[in-house]
Design goal:
The chain is of the alpha/beta class. It contains 27 helices and 21 strands. The strands form 5 sheets. The chain has an 8-stranded parallel β-sheet with strand order 1-10-9-8-7-6-5-2. The chain binds glutamine and zinc ion. Catalyzes the transfer of a methyl group from 5-methyltetrahydrofolate to homocysteine resulting in methionine formation.
């Protein structure tokens, strides 16, 4: 019998009840006992749903109070000293302290979970003395069994992945750490085996990256240890997000099952299967239902794929799975009432994917005309979207085809543009500016609400926005900034704002996914050809410029950032979508220029987020990302100054690509990794205008003048003062008014001190 399996289910709940519970508890709305009760209810609901749909192997311990990597760390007592942990079960105050910080101790770092938009808490090994504080997978297993009669499949982050994602140790200490952790893992597994657990899913997504010979050796010893300690426990060694490297080594490990991603990792994994076969003593976890994308699967094709697999693996050794945890997709399409039918009919979120898994499993294990008819009906539902006018705009496709055949290039090289711009703008040395947004005060948010609810008409709202612009243009002049911005008061979110004004986008009502902790995002859906419909930012920018003699910088979100922060169609490549976005944005850039705006910033904070997991694919991705940016910005006059902005650190390995974007000025977040970035500029001789953020906007603390002067001085030891700009790290929309003004005043003062020396 072929079985179905889910690798993990979203935590947040249909109505984000998980988020509400967490935030309610944090704000003291209810006591801990009530909080546990609420989370248990949510957790059991999720299991019940999967049980009722008929999933055979349901993951338990996928649920979390915040993040599953943090759960693993606290389970092993890996708690930074600053939280004064006294042993025993880790109290929630410490658990949430590590995640969010306390008044006495800073939070642990948070970073991206592979190439997803989920962020985990980075375990800090340095000061830890690992012990098993509580067998969480066991508790989850018992709960599911006792409350629902579910024979759960405990899931746990594997040792190699856990070590690789942790920090606070040097390479030479890896084996020492492994030898500390391994006995704890063994204890967890032995207790599970003693309880009668049948399957355990050990997640090792790190296996899709290149491993050193030493790591392969470690992998081998980890799974040999497990095989020796729990010989009767079925271990599913689960990988996802790409195809596995080192296929032969991995499938030879002494585990019962190997889980492969047959969506993102399809071509690599299939070719390994075909050329190298699959061991006869193992079960294949065939991840054929996309755990990352929001689209319905073409079940007919998936069935064919599964039948092909039967050439390598006999049917009873196949488990039909999601390609990864469903954590990365929204919960259900059920409550989407506002989408056009052709779109809604083509979507499958987590719950709909459960149905797909069950259907597909039935189709391959039983077959029959009834099930075939259901599969066909499913595949039919996708047709109208494929054929829709919005997906097939020849005007857009032809235009984008034509411009993508050219090399997008400014009319003059930077050296000439720089002189022309210098002449035109007459800016002082070390010009000062900001990144775009100013504080979104409660007033601003309230105004937007009133307008959205229809209590205010558009003119009232527009008048309010103009007032805000007036206030901030005055403030910026008073503070003494050289290049001003309008403040982005009309925008909630830098992607949604543009998506709402472009063709090809749709917005769900409830398509939330967890980004980190209780924070959820609702990415727009790019379902059709993207097209410019009319000016998006000209009115506010032009208004701002009319209120001042100083230059006002227009503010747009770039093609790659819009792409990487949206759910996108899959019938054309991401590269194609990026070019469509670039073409649309080019219209906006030109409209701004025509309206007299001579400086235009096109933000690309999310370029890095699109980097493929496989290193050998980085270059190709970066090449089209750079091309898309240039496509959007290359048609302006030489005197028009193109700015860009990037944040979320770690750009040091991308400086060449950043340079190729050919923006006249780039501002980069650096206050959190200043030294490192400066160092990479030393090696690179960056030749365009650049502002390295001189203070961290993520903190409410007002930076001292001296801190910023020393930062400027350090940067100027490496970078040309004639090309250097002074600005904060990122946009200021989350900050308060007073701290923003005070910080910027100090920044201008620091600049004046620095200018005196050049
Ligand atoms: N212009 C945007 C702002 O200032 C940039 C935001 C970002 O980099 N994330 O808010
Ligand atoms: Zn930023």
């Amino acid at each position: 019998m072929v079985r179905s399996s889910v690798l993990g289910y979203p935590r947040i709940g249909e109505d984000r009840e998980w988020k509400k519970a967490l935030e309610g508890f944090w704000s003291g709305k209810f006591e801990e006992a009530e909080f546990h009760r609420q989370l248990q209810e949510i957790r059991l609901n999720h299991l019940r749903k999967q049980q009722e749909k008929g999933i055979d192997l349901i993951a338990v311990n996928d649920f979390s109070y915040y993040d599953h990597v943090l759960d693993t760390a606290t389970m092993f007592g890996i708690i930074p000293k600053r939280f004064s942990y006294k042993g025993g079960v880790v109290p929630l105050s410490i658990y949430y302290g590590i995640a969010r910080g306390t008044k006495d101790a800073t939070a642990s770092e948070m970073t991206k979970w592979f190439n997803t938009n989920y962020h985990y808490i980075v375990p800090e090994l340095s000061e830890a003395s690992p012990v098993l504080t509580e067998n969480k997978p066991l508790l989850a297993y018992r709960e599911a069994k006792e409350k629902l009669g579910v024979e759960g499949k405990p899931v746990i982050v594997g040792p190699l992945t856990f070590l690789k994602l942790s920090k606070g140790y040097s390479l030479s200490e890896t084996d020492t750490w492994l030898s500390r952790l391994l006995p704890l893992y063994v204890q967890v597994l032995q207790e599970l085996a003693a309880e009668g657990v049948q399957w355990v899913q050990i997640d090792e997504p790190i296996l899709v990256t290149k491993l050193s010979a030493a790591d392969l050796q470690r992998l081998k010893s980890i799974y040999e240890t497990f095989a020796a300690s729990v010989p009767n426990l079925n271990i599913m060694l689960q990988t996802y997000f790409e195809s596995i490297e080192n296929y032969s080594d991995i499938v030879a490990l002494p585990v019962k099952g190997i889980g492969l991603d047959l969506v993102q990792g399809l071509s690599g994994n299939i070719s390994s299967l075909k050329t190298l076969g699959f061991p006869e003593d193992k079960v294949l976890g065939a991840g054929v239902i996309d755990g990352r994308g929001i689209w319905k699967a073409e079940l007919g094709e998936k069935r064919v794929l599964l039948e092909e697999l039967a050439e390598f693996v006999t049917a009873e050794r196949i488990i039909v799975q999601s390609s990864c945890s469903l954590l990365h997709v929204p919960v259900t399409t059920k409550h989407e009432t506002k989408l056009v039918n052709e779109l809604k009919d083509a979507l499958a979120f987590a719950d709909e994917k459960l149905d797909e898994l069950v259907l597909l499993t039935k189709a391959v294990s039983q077959g029959g005309s009834e099930i075939t008819a259901i599969l066909e009906e499913n595949d039919h539902a996708i047709e109208p979207l494929k054929l829709s006018g919005e997906r097939n705009r020849s005007d857009i496709q032809n235009a984008v085809f034509a411009i993508s055949a050219q090399n997008p290039e400014r009319s003059h090289p930077f050296s000439e543009r720089h002189l022309a711009q210098q002449n035109k703008w007459q800016l002082p040395i070390l010009p000062t500016t900001t990144i775009g947004s100013f504080p979104q005060s409660p007033e601003v948010r309230k105004a937007r609400q009133q307008w959205r609810k229809g209590e205010w008409n558009s003119e009232q709202y527009a008048a309010f926005i103009r007032e805000q612009i007036d206030i901030w243009i005055k403030l910026q002049e008073e503070i003494g900034l050289d290049v001003l911005v309008h403040g982005e008061f009309e925008r909630t979110d830098m992607v949604e704002f543009f998506g709402e004004k472009l063709a090809g986008f749709a917005f769900t009502q409830n398509g939330w996914v967890q980004s980190y902790g209780s924070r959820c995002v609702k990415p727009p859906v790019i379902f059709g050809d993207v097209a410019f419909k009319g000016a998006m930012t000209v009115e506010e920018t032009k208004y701002a410029q009319s209120r001042t003699e100083r230059p006002v910088k227009g503010m747009l979100t770039g093609p790659i950032t819009i792409l990487n922060w949206s759910f996108v169609r899959e019938d054309i490549t991401r590269e194609q979508i990026a070019y469509q976005l670039a073409y649309a944005l080019r219209h906006e850039v030109e409209a701004l220029e025509q309206a007299g705006i001579g400086m235009i910033q096109v933000d690309e904070p999310a370029v890095r987020e699109g980097l493929p997991l496989k290193e050998e694919e980085h270059e190709k991705y970066l090449a089209w990302a750079v091309k898309a940016f240039r496509m959007a910005t290359c048609t302006v006059q030489e005197t028009t100054q193109i700015h860009t902005h990037m944040c979320y650190c770690e750009f040091h390995d991308m400086i060449n690509s950043i340079e190729e974007m050919d923006a006249d000025v780039i501002s980069i977040e650096t206050s959190r990794s200043h030294g490192e970035l400066i160092h990479s500029f030393e090696l690179n001789t960056y030749k365009l205008g650049i502002g390295l953020g001189v203070y961290d906007i993520h903190s409410p603390r007002i930076p001292y003048v001296e801190e910023m002067t020393s930062m400027i001085e350090r940067a100027l030891r490496v970078l040309d003062p004639k090309l250097f700009w002074i600005n904060p790290d990122c946009g200021l929309k989350t900050r308060g008014l007073k701290e923003t003004v005070d910080s910027l005043r100090n920044m201008v003062e620091a600049t004046q001190i620095a200018r005196a020396k050049y």
